[in-house]
């Protein structure tokens, strides 16, 4: 069918107008679309996924000690967990003396013992923990048993993985007080099962650093069960100023206090007091005392 000329022209014109409008619209729309996307949640999500997720992952690796330390503390060589094996090797060469127990800081032993005595006073006595029996964990030669626990508790038990420390404690270091030691356990704390409902106080000093997070948590759970009514667990250790650090020399982990709190919380214990040990030289890693029930 023939189309009148005027009609054809007007149709073409209309067509062009449509095209121009479409062009203008699509150009505008593209711009709008881009800017809408840039401000939309999905854009942010995509951006986060691309950049921030990776950054967070790296942050996690850096900041979460469990992630970073796991391969180090749980490395097995020929069936041996290297973290524990190295500590065992280290202490084999350590002398059974106060110097051996304190490393380079033997001169601060009396400050340490006085700080501990003052801290412990707050949890023992009428209406609090009894004074029948205490357990010294990672006791070494019994420096704390002698200076802090034996003056308060009638009887004591001691546990350490090194036989030569326990022998020295019994035969020499504790003198006549050795008669009040009911049992010396030569055990690794990660395997040690304290008897239930036996102790008024469980003291864990400068040895929690030798246990992995998981083993420490499980050990604390067992210690909780070993408490008599009113009993208290005291953990005293070096605490990192930031994060978590592994010392490959003696195979120990220094944890930030918050990380330690997390482990204690996971063990189902309630922290009743936290105090920094004062009077130690600034170059030393801060030492904190934590009492829990
Ligand atoms: C730095 S000394 C501290 C001794 C004592 N607590 C003191 O403050 O004088 C660490 C002690 O923990 C013991 N130890 C280290 N790792 C242990 C483990 N996994 N189980 C039992 N004892 C351990 C060592 O044999 C050593 O006697």
Automatic annotation (TrEMBL):
Tagged with keyword Transferase: yes
Gene Ontology cellular component list: cytoplasm
GO biological process, alphabetically ordered: methylation
Keyword match Methyltransferase: yes
Single GO MF descriptor: N-terminal protein N-methyltransferase activity
Family matches, as InterPro entries: MeTrfase_NTM1, SAM-dependent_MTases_sf
Keywords: Methyltransferase, S-adenosyl-L-methionine, Transferase
Origin superkingdom: Eukaryota
Family the entry assigns: Belongs to the methyltransferase superfamily. NTM1 family.
Protein name: Alpha N-terminal protein methyltransferase 1B
Lineage: Eukaryota, Metazoa, Chordata, Craniata, Vertebrata
């Amino acid at each position: 069918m023939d189309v009148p000329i005027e009609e054809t022209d007007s149709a073409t014109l209309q067509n062009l107008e449509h095209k121009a409008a479409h062009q203008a619209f699509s150009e505008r729309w593209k711009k709008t679309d881009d800017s809408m996307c840039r401000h939309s949640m999905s854009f942010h999500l995509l951006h986060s996924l691309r950049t921030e997720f990776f950054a967070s992952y790296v942050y996690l690796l850096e900041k979460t000690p469990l992630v970073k330390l796991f391969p180090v503390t749980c490395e097995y060589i020929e069936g041996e967990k290297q973290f524990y094996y190295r500590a065992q090797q280290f202490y084999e060469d350590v002398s059974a003396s106060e110097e051996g127990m304190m490393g380079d800081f033997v001169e601060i032993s009396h400050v340490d013992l006085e700080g501990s005595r003052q801290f412990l006073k707050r949890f023992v006595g009428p209406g609090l923990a009894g004074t029948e029996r205490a357990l010294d964990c990672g006791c070494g030669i019994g420096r704390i048993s002698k200076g802090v626990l034996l003056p308060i508790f009638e009887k004591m038990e001691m546990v350490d993985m090194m036989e030569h420390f326990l022998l020295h404690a019994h035969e020499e270091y504790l003198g006549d007080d050795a008669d009040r030691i009911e049992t010396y356990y030569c055990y690794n704390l990660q395997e040690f099962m304290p008897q239930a409902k036996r102790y008024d106080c469980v003291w864990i000093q400068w040895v929690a650093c030798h246990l992995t997070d998981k083993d420490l948590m499980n050990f604390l759970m067992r210690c909780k069960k070993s408490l008599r009514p009113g009993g208290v667990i005291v953990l005293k250790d070096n605490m990192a100023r930031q994060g978590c650090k592994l010392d490959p020399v003696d195979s120990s982990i220094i944890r930030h206090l918050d990380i330690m709190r997390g482990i204690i919380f996971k063990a189902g214990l309630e922290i009743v007091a936290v105090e920094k040990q004062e009077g130690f030289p600034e170059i030393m890693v801060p030492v904190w005392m934590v009492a829990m029930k």
